[in-house]
Amino acid sequence: MKNAIITGSTKGMGRSIAEKLSVDGYRIWISARNQKDLEVAKNEIEAKTDNEVMIHAIDFSNQEQIERYADEILNTGQTIDVLVNNVGVYIPDNLKDDELKLDMQMDVNFYAPYYLTQKLLKQFEEQKTGSIFNICSVVNRKPRVDGASYTISKFAFWGYHKLLHQTLLPLGVKVTGFFPSSINTSSWDGMDVPKDEFVQPEDVADMISTILNMKRGTVPSEIDLVAINPDF
Ligand SMILES: NC(=O)c1ccc[n+]([C@@H]2O[C@H](COP(=O)([O-])OP(=O)(O)OC[C@H]3O[C@@H](n4cnc5c(N)ncnc54)[C@H](OP(=O)(O)O)[C@@H]3O)[C@@H](O)[C@H]2O)c1
Fold first, then answer.
1. Fewer CB in 10 Å around end: N or C, the chain?
2. Is the CB of 89 under 6 A from ligand 1?
3. pTM surpassing 0.85?
4. What residue segments make up the domains of the chain, in order of their start?
5. Below-50 pLDDT ranges, the chain
6. Is 113 in the pocket of ligand 1 (CB under 6 A)?
7. Pocket test for ligand 1, best of 87, 101, 146, 223 (most atoms within 8 A of CB)
8. What's the topology of domain 3-225?
C-alpha cells in the first residue's frame, strides 16, 4: 500500500486532502496537536474507505517532535509516496506594530516543513520517486501588509519549495507548490465572509489527486488558485 503524509490534517484543507488520498487507496498519515480530533478523524475516514489511517499528535512548532515523527516514518522501511507540507498558521500583524508575531509563524509555516522534509530527503533521493506538495499562499504573489509575519514566513517556505523542486527534479521526485487565495476552511469560522466565493478545499484535494495520476514526465511546479471573489 502506498503512503501519503499530510501535515495538519484533522481540519481544513489538510483534512480534505487526507480524505481524498484515502479514497484513492493510500495509507494516510495524519497529524495535529489535538489527540481526540485525530481519533475522530481516523474513525470517520476509515469508515468511509477501509484504508488504514495512521495518527500522530505533534506540535509542528517543536523541532524535536517533528524529527521524532520523521524517524518514525523512516523506521517503517516503507516508501514515502506523497508528502503534503500543509500545516500553517495565520496571525495578523503589521510592520508598524511594536512587536511582530514572527517566531510562531516562522516555526510552523517554514521550519516545520523544512525540518520534516530535510529528514525525509535522503529517502526520497534513494527512492527516486514520490511527490511533495508545498502549500504556499497568495501572499507569495502579493504580500499582505496586515499579515506581515505570515508573508515573511511563506516567502521563506517558497524559497525552500523552489530549491526542493530544482534539487529533486533530476532524481525523479516531483515537487509542486500551491498558491491559493482564501480557502473555505475552519480558519474563517465565526467571520462574516462569503465562503462559497472562496477556493474550496475539495478542489485542491482533487487537483493533487489528478497530479498524482499524471504521466512520469509531467511535473507542475507552481499552481495559483484564485477565489472568484476578488476581495479574498
Ligand atoms: N485558509 C486559507 O484561507 C488559506 C489561504 C492560503 C493558504 N492557506 C494555507 O493552507 C494551509 C492549511 O490551512 P487551513 O486553513 O486548512 O488550516 P486550518 O483549517 O486552520 O487547519 C489547521 C490544521 O492544522 C493543525 N495544526 C495547526 N497548528 C498546528 C501545529 N502547531 N502543530 C500541529 N498541527 C497544527 C490543526 O489541528 P490542531 O489545532 O489540533 O493542531 C488542523 O488540523 C496552511 O499552510 C495555510 O497557510 C490557507
1. N
2. yes
3. yes
4. 3-225
5. none
6. no
7. 87
8. Rossmann fold (3.40.50)
